[in-house]
Amino acid sequence: MSAASPPARTTPRPRAASRPEGVVTMAHGAGGKASHALVESVFLEAFSNPALAPLNDGAVLDIAGQDVAFTTDSFVVSPIFFPGGSLGDLAVNGTVNDLAACGAQPLALSAGFVIEEGFPVEDLARVVDAMGRSAQRAGVPIVTGDTKVVQRGKGDGCYVNTSGIGLVDRRATGLAASSARPGDAVIISGPIGDHGTAVLLARGELGISADVCSDTAPLNGLVAALLEAVGPAVHVLRDATRGGVATVLNEIAAASGAAIVLDEDDIPVRPQVAGVCELLGIDPLYVACEGRMVVVVARERAGEALRAMRSHPLGAGSAVIGRADADPAGLVLEETSFGGARVVDMLVGDPLPRIC
Amino acid sequence: MKFMEEYRDRNKATAVSAAIAELCEPGRRYKLMEVCGGHTYTIYKHGLEYYLPGAVELVHGPGCPVCVIPMGRVDDAISIARQDGVTMACFGDMARVPGSKGSFLRAKAEGADVRVVYSPMDALRIAIEEPARKVVFMAIGFETTAPSTALTLQRAKAMDVPNFSVFCNHVTIIPPLRAILDAPDVDIDGFVGPGHVSAVIGCKPYEVVTKEYNRPLVVSGFEPLDILQSVYMLMRQLASGRCEVENQYSRVVTWEGNPRALQAIEETMEPRPHFEWRGLGSIPLSALKLRDEFARFDAELIYQVPGVRVADPRACQCGQVLRGRLRPWECRVFAKACTPERPIGTCMVSSEGACAAFYNFGRLTRPERLAEARS
Predict the structure, then answer these.
(1) Which residue in chain A is spatially nearest to B43 when comparing CA positions?
(2) pLDDT value at position A299?
(3) pTM metric for this prediction
């Protein structure tokens, strides 16, 4: 038996995606490869324009000489209330964080509700109260809204959409996933996987209990502190949500052509989260966060950036988790605690627990 | 978690690695098969091969329960899932396995009620809570998962749950090992034996491998140091000319196994005359079916299924990979037509499948390392 030639190792993942066949599946919503294929083959083609093309967390528009960030997100979560937050917190923080990832401070949000007939008014009030509190915490008003009610069975309780606009900080220049450069440091603003683990446990299907709270939080203040400290040395900001930190890093690697090399020992994971993930055969790198920013920053300013982030209450657990490198272009690697190395690929479909 | 970290200590790994290297005879190559998919996953996830000398190669065996399910059985299960009033409950990594016309996930998107469960008891609970649904549990796995199916069947019988059944695809570990060893020109020097399966069946049944086929076998745990130590134990046997079943995983596995679990299997299931294995073909007495006393819980008797044997796709070389004859990247469709998004063969589906584990974690460095070692 002879060894065939090794698979190509330096070719970045091809961007063009073919249109998925058949019907939309849950995998198309999980933030991994299938989601990307759907966005690129269906939406990007139909909506094609320069502001959309970079597929960042939000679009940045030049309005009367001001860089204005604009973003939208829809929120669906089951259960609606979970340790550490609720649908309402996610709806505000998610959009605030998308703006923050554009380097923008939020100016105003909208809120749209699709409510299923039979949904308790009290629950709706709890969701809306949480939105009010989160908006106050982020320092942004919710200035317009809409409500639709659908027949029983036609919606899963309550869905919320929020859109937001914000002014891009003048100290943030050239922020884009494509701006990562070899040598840059990769920082995460706190322990990973808290949100996804908290929600998974709150569903109560696993018969596992652990003390884990969602990390949902508005990160605009943290980003302001970071930009205040190191400004243009920040090359990429991405909030890690669906698909977790691994997915965001793969997007950065693919867009920039740089390699991202992580050190497993340096990635902060709470012991409870690591334990639950280990039991289920899920990798915390792929588990959703709702209050964590991935920061790619010039190496020589990494120390300052880390200090600035750690001195903010929402970045106290910040850590340098890896670096950008030239080779292998477009891939994410992890140097394992055990002393080996592995590829950290984009997730395929939903993370599915293993059988044994 | 401390328990985990102890088995991932790189200083200890370095020491074991040096001991393995010392046992290598100059000029000799060693090919060791890890039977279990859980081992394959650990090997790639932690980069275990960085600790092995170039002369020692690990090849991946048929122990990923998802990988060995033939397409025809998947088609049968999906056809049950599509019937009116049926709720199909399956393990997570089964959901993506392609049949000849799509997977459970596809069937779900098209309207079938497919639910991911973590144990067969969850499926039984759904049946009890939703009496209007006909709940079918897609049972897969070796002797590892068969006891939980067995206990669930006993519970269902005791509680007289009318709307619960099991589509049984349980398989047993010894027959495929025999099938691999019966093939001509077997070049495997020893086996890293499965851990979880052995917790049920014990170590004794592997004496077939040592006595009839003259290959040493070490039952191994799942942490990286467990596997490395098992490789060391195999190498020590090979160096001293011994050929025994040894138990590295003694914190979990006993020589005799778990008699209660074995009894539960025995009471509810019996061997099938033949069962088709993906890539390995039909192997006699290699799978389990429900006993007559449990016929009313047997989905194969309750539902009409096509029961058609579907040939593996012609391009697919999973069979060669499962026998350790081909390395994942040597398969002609690996990473080209066959990827985790669009798997052609089952080895690319489960995270424990050799191809998926290699594609996901290892594809960067391993072929180069092996090429270097050969030159």
Answers:
(1) A340
(2) 97
(3) 0.81
